[in-house]
Amino acid sequence: QVQVVESGGGLVQAGGSLRLSCAASGSIFSINAMGWYRQAPGKQRELVAVITTGGTTNYADSVKGRFTISRDNAKNTVYLQMNSLKPEDTAVYYCIAMSIRNYWGQGTQVTVSS
């Protein structure tokens, strides 16, 4: 079993920045990758960014150049640095740990005001 806990959401004005954190615990040796999804009201959950244990990253086109995913292996923590935020980035952001199965966090709200 893997547990993931997110933190760092909040309210920010357009153009501002936020950093999300996701700490994993439990059977972390089984994790192949970690990442972030988001779900806006009335929309499907979508991939934002993912990082593998080897450090390979992948981003949604909508966040490329603005968001950066990184990891601290010593702390079993993944970060999502979000810059130049737009109102359309408003969503609940979920951390995911990927192994034999996927483990989801409870979500953290990010609201970007115009």
- The low-pLDDT segments are none
Characterize the main sheet: 7 strands, mixed
Radius of gyration: 13 Å
Range of strand content: over 45%
Helix content: under 10%
Draw up the topology in text.
Blueprint: E1 2-7, E2 10-13, E3 18-26, E4 33-39, E5 46-52, E6 57-59, E7 67-72, E8 77-82, E9 91-98, E10 102-104, E11 108-113
Parallel strand pairs: 2-11
Antiparallel strand pairs: 1-3, 3-8, 4-5, 4-9, 5-6, 7-8, 9-10, 9-11
Structure description:
Helices cover 0% and strands 57% of the residues. The protein contains no helices and 11 strands. The chain has strands at residues 2-7, 10-13, 18-26, 33-39, 46-52, 57-59, 67-72, 77-82, 91-98, 102-104, 108-113. Strands 2, 4, 5, 6, 9, 10 and 11 form a 7-stranded mixed sheet that branches. The radius of gyration is 13 Å and the shape is globular. The chain starts with a strand and ends with a strand.
Summary?
This protein is mainly beta and 114 residues long. It is 0% helix and 57% strand. The protein has no helices and eleven strands.
